[in-house]
């Protein structure tokens, strides 16, 4: 029941770039004051996902969705608008189900050997996405990024290399399994093969083996291949003509632990318009290896060796549907067998527990944050919250050695700034990457 979108694994490198339930009443919808008519603003909604109200469907709790218009390059008529794209600040690039964009006939993007490229995204729960890299014009809000390499998630289950699937049968290539029509990755990095400023899918001195992220195929045989940075699945924000140095996620607070739906904004750019200035009340957290440090219950979760990027780094990730952290507080974990299925990925304290943790940036900034952990079984079965899409106290355990994942509940009532790696920021702010809130 826990959605792990998106924890992209750069498995061959020993690196993990951060990312991430279940469970509609009608009277709890709230919103922010940002005008969605501004060209650099896109409405986002926590509404349970595309299958929430379908017979046999399920409700995807704590997932923020947006719509984007996708066109064949240079066309204004050969287009589709795709709704329920998962907004994910923990991954990079647009990934859309083939069923949503297959009619467009988008042109293929080639790997370094001149053959059409395929992209693999593997997640920490063993699931994955596989499909060709194709080029599209992508309109977000009122701004258009041209000729963006995107992943079209293949509807086929054949010919997928085992180095991508790892032998797993959990191919998230349908609306029902993905819980969305695609993923809009708007995180720190410009491409999905960049980590902490290094692009691992282009050849470098001494680099002869490409990681299992991009492939070319001959018949049913596929092998990993290097690919130029300009052809990699790209964070579409960096290709916007302006407002392209980061994003701000604005979602209202959730009262009473749950809301049927929640409406907010994804704002493009930081310090580029009157509506995206860095507020004086925010704290900027620079990062090491794309992570910062969280101190909780006397334990420190941060990068311990910057040269190898090892250590239990912590991160802020709208693509995780709960707060996930090592159980230093000895919170009871939910049982595997409940009336709503296996809930062992979540905490089940006898009553709601209130905590504080301190987040620290690499530059020495710090801020103490309060949060609450509820009983997931009660949350999912209670008449008050059981049909709500936005759940502010949903949390679960991360294994030992893994850091603090500040998922979507962290965003409720907090404007979160996400500055993209290497991009110039407003006066007084360091270049990206960093978070601020």
Features:
single chain; 437 residues; mainly beta; Cathepsin D, subunit A, domain 1; 2 domains; 4 helices; 29 strands; disordered N terminus
Q: Topology of this protein?
A:
Blueprint: E1 8-10, E2 15-17, E3 41-46, E4 65-71, E5 79-88, E6 92-97, H1 98-101, E7 118-122, E8 128-140, E9 143-153, H2 162-165, H3 175-178, E10 182-186, E11 194-195, E12 198-199, E13 214-218, E14 221-224, E15 246-250, E16 258-259, E17 262-268, E18 284-286, E19 293-296, E20 299-301, E21 315-316, E22 323-325, E23 353-360, E24 366-373, H4 376-381, E25 390-391, E26 395-397, E27 405-406, E28 416-419, E29 434-436
Parallel strand pairs: 5-10, 6-9, 21-27, 22-26
Antiparallel strand pairs: 1-2, 3-17, 4-5, 4-8, 6-10, 7-8, 7-13, 8-9, 11-12, 13-14, 15-17, 15-28, 16-25, 18-29, 19-20, 19-23, 22-27, 23-24, 28-29
Q: Estimate percent helicity.
A: under 10%
Number of strands: 29
Average pLDDT number: 90
Strand content: 25-35%
Task: Kindly report the oligomeric state of this protein.
Answer: single chain
Number of helices: 4
Q: Strand sequence of the main sheet, in spatial order?
A: 3-17-15-28-29-18
Please state the structural category: mainly beta
The N- and C-terminal alpha carbons lie at a distance of 29 Å
CA gyration radius, whole angstroms: 20 Å
- The low-pLDDT segments are 1-33
Largest beta-sheet details: 6 strands, antiparallel
| Shape, per Cα inertia axes | globular
Compute the number of structural domains. 2
What do these coordinates show?
- This protein has 437 residues and is mainly beta.
- It has two domains: 8-239, no CATH class; 275-436, Beta Barrel (Cathepsin D, subunit A, domain 1), CATH 2.40.70.
- Helix content is 4%, strand content 32%.
- It has four helices and 29 strands.
- The chain has a six-stranded antiparallel β-sheet with strand order 3-17-15-28-29-18, with no helix packed on it.
- Mean pLDDT is 90; it is low at 1-33.
């Amino acid at each position: 029941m826990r959605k792990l979108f998106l924890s992209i694994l750069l498995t061959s490198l020993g690196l993990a770039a951060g990312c991430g339930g279940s469970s509609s009443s009608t009277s709890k919808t709230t919103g922010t004051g940002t005008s969605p008519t501004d060209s650099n603003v896109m409405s986002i909604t926590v509404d349970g996902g595309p299958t929430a109200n379908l017979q046999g469907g399920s409700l995807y709790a704590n997932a923020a969705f947006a719509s984007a218009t996708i066109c064949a390059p240079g066309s204004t008529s050969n287009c589709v608008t795709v709704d329920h794209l998962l907004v994910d600040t923990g991954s990079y690039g647009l990934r859309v189900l083939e069923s949503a964009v297959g009619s467009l006939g988008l042109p293929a993007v080639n790997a370094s050997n001149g053959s059409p490229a395929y992209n693999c995204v593997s997640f920490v729960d063993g699931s994955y996405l596989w499909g060709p890299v194709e080029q599209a014009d992508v309109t977000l809000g009122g701004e258009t990024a041209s000729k963006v390499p995107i992943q079209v998630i293949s509807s086929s289950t054949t010919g997928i290399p085992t180095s991508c699937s790892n032998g797993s049968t959990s191919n998230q290539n349908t609306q029902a399994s993905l819980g969305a029509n695609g993923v809009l990755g708007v995180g720190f990095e410009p491409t999905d093969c960049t980590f902490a400023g290094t692009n691992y899918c282009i050849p470098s001195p001494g680099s002869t083996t490409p990681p299992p992220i991009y492939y070319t195929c001959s018949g049913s045989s596929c092998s990993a291949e290097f690919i130029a940075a300009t052809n990699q699945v790209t964070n579409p924000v960096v290709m916007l003509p302006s407002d392209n140095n980061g994003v701000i996620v604005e979602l209202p607070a959730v009262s009473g632990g749950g809301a049927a739906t929640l409406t907010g904004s994804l704002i493009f750019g930081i310090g580029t318009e009157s509506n995206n200035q860095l507020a004086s009340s925010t704290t900027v957290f620079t990062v090491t290896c794309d992570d910062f440090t969280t101190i909780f219950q006397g334990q420190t979760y941060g990068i311990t060796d910057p040269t190898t990027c090892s250590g239990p780094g912590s991160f802020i990730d709208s693509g995780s549907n709960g707060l996930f952290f090592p159980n230093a507080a000895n919170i009871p974990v939910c049982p595997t067998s409940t009336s709503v299925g296996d809930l062992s990925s979540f905490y089940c304290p006898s009553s709601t527990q209130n905590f504080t943790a301190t987040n620290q940036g690499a530059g020495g900034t710090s801020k103490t944050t309060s949060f609450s952990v509820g009983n997931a079984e009660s949350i999912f079965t209670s008449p008050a919250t059981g049909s709500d899409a936005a759940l502010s106290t949903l949390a679960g355990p991360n294994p030992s050695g893994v850091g603090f994942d500040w998922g979507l509940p962290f965003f409720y009532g907090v404007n979160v700034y996400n500055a993209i790696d290497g991009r110039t920021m407003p006066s007084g702010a360091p270049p990206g990457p960093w978070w601020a809130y």
